[in-house]
Amino acid sequence: MAHPTQLGFQDAASPVMEELLHFHDHALMIVFLISTLVLYIIIAMVSTKLTNKYILDSQEIEIVWTVLPAVILVLIALPSLRILYLMDEINDPHLTIKAMGHQWYWSYEYTDYEDLGFDSYMIPTQDLTPGQFRLLETDHRMVVPMESPVRVLVSAEDVLHSWAVPSLGVKMDAVPGRLNQTAFIASRPGVFYGQCSEICGANHSFMPIVVEAVPLEHFESWSSLMLEDA
Amino acid sequence: MADVIEDKIKNYRTAPFDARFPNTNQTRNCFQNYLDFHRCNKALSSKGQETSPCDWYQRVYKSLCPMSWVEKWDGQIEDGSFPGKI
Predict the structure, then answer these.
(1) CATH 2.60.40.420 fits A93-227, yes or no
(2) Cβ contact A180–B25 (<8 Å)
(3) pTM
(4) Any idea where the domains of chain B sit in the sequence?
(5) Mind telling me how many Å the CA of A96 is from chain B's nearest CA?
(6) Domain B1-7+27-79 sits in which CATH superfamily?
(7) ipTM, 2 decimals?
């Protein structure tokens, strides 16, 4: 989850998010280098004692400052396209879950075998127990088996919503009448938080998403338990 | 043929990748399998054959389609107001 005064991304919990994180580090480093260089040049230009500063030309420097930026752009584009295609790869999911957005809660449906469906409401602040996170906890979590490719089909029952879990590198708009597919693999067990990412009315900020990745046996016992309770 | 399908259904995990619907929008994937299930049922039962091969389509649409959509469509089929051609 996010921390106060956090500057970077949340720790990655899926292989795709790890790649995105590293690419962001790479691109941001290039940005910092260029910005530092430009700042240095500005200061140098402004503080020089030289008087003949204008109407100069030089073929060499013109070539350098045309070719070098082109090279830098290629160095950014190649990893970017690699990740783009990586995210678009055909995967073979082990499990399909439907995440339906409502005003103002998510409901999850696991219908590969039995018809398991449940709602996931935010826990109000006054009902939190010590150690729980304000505005992020829900009464029922979306439990998934870890290290398994999971397909999530996102839709909405009323207005636009968006299902997002930053640590898994996932965000998908929930559009009524449309079924949007996204997929992820949770590389480690854990609890991953997200929030609705499309304005949807008064309680848009109060319909969080919690994904809990557990070993497969725990997932199987959880789903049997949920089916009994339903 | 029927036992190939039976095998596939026995080892069913979830709806597999369908090359007809390679993109993010899977709406048609869900709807097509729903249609195909009902068409398959209609076609096989009209010939007096077993409808168990149709179960594949049912497993797939159950995996993909939101339960509310399926309930709505089932209701429409009962009413006779279902918009698709079966």
Answers:
(1) yes
(2) yes
(3) 0.93
(4) 1-7+27-79
(5) 6
(6) Cytochrome c oxidase, subunit VIb (1.10.10.140)
(7) 0.94
C-alpha A47/C-alpha A140 separation (Å) is 62
Give the minimum alpha-carbon distance from A93 to chain B in angstroms, rounded to a whole number. 7
Q: Where are the domains of chain A?
A: 13-86, 93-227
- Chain B hits for A96, Cβ within 8 Å: 14-15, 63-64
Residue A66, SS3?
helix
Task: Answer yes or no: CATH 1.10.287.90 is held by domain A13-86.
Answer: yes
Instruction: Inspect the interface and report whether the beta carbons of B17 and A98 lie closer than 8 Å.
Output: no
- B25/A contact by beta carbon, under 8 A: yes
Tens-of-pLDDT digits for all 230 residues of chain A? 889 999 999 999 999 999 999 999 999 999 999 999 999 999 999 999 988 878 788 999 999 999 999 999 999 999 999 999 999 999 899 999 999 999 999 999 999 999 999 999 999 999 999 999 999 999 999 999 999 999 999 999 999 999 999 999 999 999 999 999 999 999 999 999 999 999 999 999 999 999 999 999 999 999 999 999 87
Length of chain A equals: 230
Torsion sign across C-alpha atoms B1, B4, B9, B10: positive
**Do A109 and B67 lie within an 8 Å CB cutoff?**
yes
Distance, in Å, from the CA atom of A79 to the CA atom of A86, rounded to the nearest integer, reads 10
- Residue B84 in tokens: 């698709």
